């Protein structure tokens, strides 16, 4: 990675981290239990910023010699989707999110682990493609 891109990636990392914390601390608790549409928008905004954090980490840590595979992104996508389906299944059988939080910990952890794998893998691959294009 060239030296002129590293400061921009550090700025992306810092701003995405701040947005992730701000969304998850202020917006998600306010909207998720009461307003499904606004809560969904807040979750998607938080998920995108969270994936951007790991994208920039993947770009900063990358020192590729060859084009990496996207296996970790595939695993992340699968983990993300399975976790969402598990959370929806819990909701469909009548486990309320507001009163019983425990069963939702596993799907929530899977969603965030999947997003981290997706973001990191895409950042790592992007750094490799930029290195090859040079």
Automatic annotation (TrEMBL):
Annotated keywords: Membrane, Transmembrane, Transmembrane helix
Top-level taxon: Archaea
Membrane-crossing segments per the record: 38-60, 72-95, 101-122
Name the UniProt record assigns to this protein: Uncharacterized protein
């Amino acid at each position: 990675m060239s030296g002129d891109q590293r400061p921009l990636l550090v700025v992306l990392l810092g701003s995405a981290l701040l947005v992730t914390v701000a969304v998850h601390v202020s917006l998600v608790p306010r909207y998720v239990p009461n307003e499904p549409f606004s809560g969904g928008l807040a979750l998607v905004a938080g998920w995108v910023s969270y994936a951007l954090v790991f994208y920039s980490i993947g770009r900063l840590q990358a020192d590729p010699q060859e084009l990496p595979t996207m296996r970790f992104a595939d695993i992340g996508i699968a983990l993300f989707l399975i976790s969402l389906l598990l959370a929806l299944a819990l909701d469909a059988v009548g486990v309320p999110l507001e009163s019983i939080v425990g069963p939702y910990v596993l799907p929530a952890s899977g969603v965030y682990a999947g997003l981290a794998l997706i973001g990191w893998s895409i950042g790592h691959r992007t750094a490799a493609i930029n290195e090859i294009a040079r």
